[in-house]
Amino acid sequence: MLLSCPAFAVSSIPQQKVLHSRSHWTEANTNACIKGKFNLYQIVASSRNLKFITGSVSKEGNTSVEYDAPFPNDYSDLLKQAKKATELALKDGKQLMEIEFPTAGLQSVSGDGEGGNEMTGSMQLIREFCDIVVTPEKATRTRIFFPEANEVKFARQVFEGASFKLDYLTKPSFFEDFGFGEKVKMADRVKPDDELFLVGYPYFNVNEMIVVEELYKEAVMNTTRKLIIFNGELDRIRSGYYPPFFYPKLAALTKTLLPMMETVYYIHNFKGRNGGTLFRCYPGPWRVLRMVGNKYFCVYQQETMPSLKEVALDILPAA
Q1: pTM for this prediction
Q2: Most C-beta atoms within 10 A of its C-beta, which of 46, 145, 243, 296?
Q3: How far, in Å, CA of 3 to CA of 174, rounded?
Q4: For residues 298 and 286, is the Cβ–Cβ distance under 8 A?
Q5: Which residues, at least 6 apart from 115, have a Cβ–Cβ distance to it below 8 Å?
Q6: How far apart are CA 28 and CA 14, in angstroms?
Q7: Running DSSP on this structure, what letter comes out for residue 304?
């Protein structure tokens, strides 16, 4: 069942992007989509029985945009929302944070864009995010980690003129194609005046997130430093995509690292007959949205993150 809310006007806004794989760069356009005002009708679940209650949220309303933020108009709007969510999380003392959203279009799903191009999209958006979140005097105390040393070479072009420290998690090796990279001791990468770490898309190699955990344990835990994982595709780990038998250290992150993490901004789209979007902007609830025609509807919400399986198999089909 769907409850109506005012429509979003859908537009196509070209946004220039520099795309690369780990071996080349090209130019391309990407389209971003949604525009307008949002009134939310909330649906709350109790066990598997859905209860319907009504509420209203708009950009002009009394409820803060940060709490019940509307789906972003475009990537510029998305970054502003992510900035506010991050600032509120930092104010609340959150130390380990996740930001996750598609880069091939706000309504895209994993696989819609070529992997290297998606990484480049994330790199550009990391630059824009850091530009609006990090004050100039804090730029030299912000260290941005990319998956491997070769990525830093590309990053220097995207971050030209910025004072952020660019770094890497792993070094490429002869065995890289088999999922192995040269281990970098994180304690040796960190400098005493570092205050904020941002790790960009650590999912190309299965060892990258293990190194991120090392970074957290050795340089963040029991300090005043903060760590943000930006488009790390952590749902692969949450969902058991990597069999624990073959990847025990990676699977262990669901019990060690991930429970300590606050997802401050998140968009995950579901395509097909029962398509929709799982959306969260800290400190608001997790909401499942569905677009019908040019209108968005909230069909479900809860305070904790539902699994993607639950959204796909239970919540969206029942909506």
Answers
A1: 0.78
A2: 145
A3: 56
A4: no
A5: 21, 204
A6: 10
A7: S
